Amino acid sequence: MPRSNNAVASRARRKRVLKMARGYYGARKNVWTVAKNAVEKGMQYAYVGRKQRKRQFRRLWITRINAGARQHGMSYSQFMGAVHTHGIELNRKVLADLAMNHPHAFKAIVDRVK
Asked: How many structural domains does the chain have?
């Protein structure tokens, strides 16, 4: 029985990985074994980064809300507690946008919860 090596699938797999490695520096872009490792590591970083992005945006929103609330004499925790007790259904993303780009609207919310 002749030896089978499935060259078509192997070549396609290598081609796909080398295409993903375009733009890398040095041997990482064109040497199969080095490119494969670099792409795998890059995919791991991308997976973790998709989770971290959500955390980083939440931190940014909290920082912006805190800055806006402190301009009106409240801390972040006091402000968010008052927002929840008054039943205002705005999430942190919207509140941060109001605090940054629409200070008059944010002031109206602060005055309502005070």
From this structure: 1
- CA-to-CA distance for 6 and 63, rounded, in angstroms? 55
Q: What global pTM score does this model have?
A: 0.82
CATH number of domain containing 14: 1.10.1900.20
Instruction: Give, in order, the Cα–Cα distances in Å from 26 to each of 17, 30, 71.
Output: 15, 8, 51
| Residue 96 CB neighbour total at 10 angstroms | 23
Domain range enclosing 11? 7-113
Q: What is the pLDDT of residues 53-82, one digit of tens each?
A: 999 999 999 999 999 999 999 999 999 999
Query: Could you tell me the two tokens for 56?
Result: 């980083």
What are 19-32's pLDDT values in tens digits?
999 999 999 999 99
Residue 68's Cβ-count burial label (10 Å; 0-12, 13-18, 19+) is buried
